[in-house]
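User: I would dearly like some help making sense of a protein record. This is the protein in question:
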Amino acid sequence: MPGFLDEFRRRVIASVWKDTEPGIKPEEVDDKIALGVLMQAVAAADSKFLSQEESQIESVLTDYAGVSRESLPEVMASIRQASKERVDLYRFTSEVTEGLDYSKKIEILESLFRVACVDKDLDENELELIRKISGLFNISHGDFISAKIKVKKEFGMDISGI
């Protein structure tokens, strides 16, 4: 039985990339889209999706995940398409992180915090979604707090009371 991401890739290619490169294979649509979907979910958790959040998602995808500027529009379109569907967070995160090093999971967690903090307001709904994803990634509470502090410092946010 194909995994969730395999089916996701097929749907992305069928719906979003149908008018682009002919013969594109599902394997060529990588898990960077999955990272984008998680970031999009965090950005939308506070019921306001700001342009700064979309810019931060794009920045994380290009700077940290290696998505080229040329393919960014297609990747973002794929993320938007996937985000319209309800995502089973448990299933999604378990397939995304299968075989992923703990340090990479921390990097993903920090990316999620970057998206949530770009507006200099870590909303409680955003925080709770990131906490849930962190738990699904099996990240220790100490590393969760460290990632939160690190990113809040990056954005010049208050870290007292953490």
User: Anything to note?
Assistant: DSSP finds eight helices and no strands in the chain. Confidence is low (pLDDT under 50) at residues 22-29. The CA atoms of residues 40 and 54 lie 8 Å apart. Helices lie at 4-15, 32-44, 51-63, 72-84, 89-97, 102-117, 124-136, 141-154.
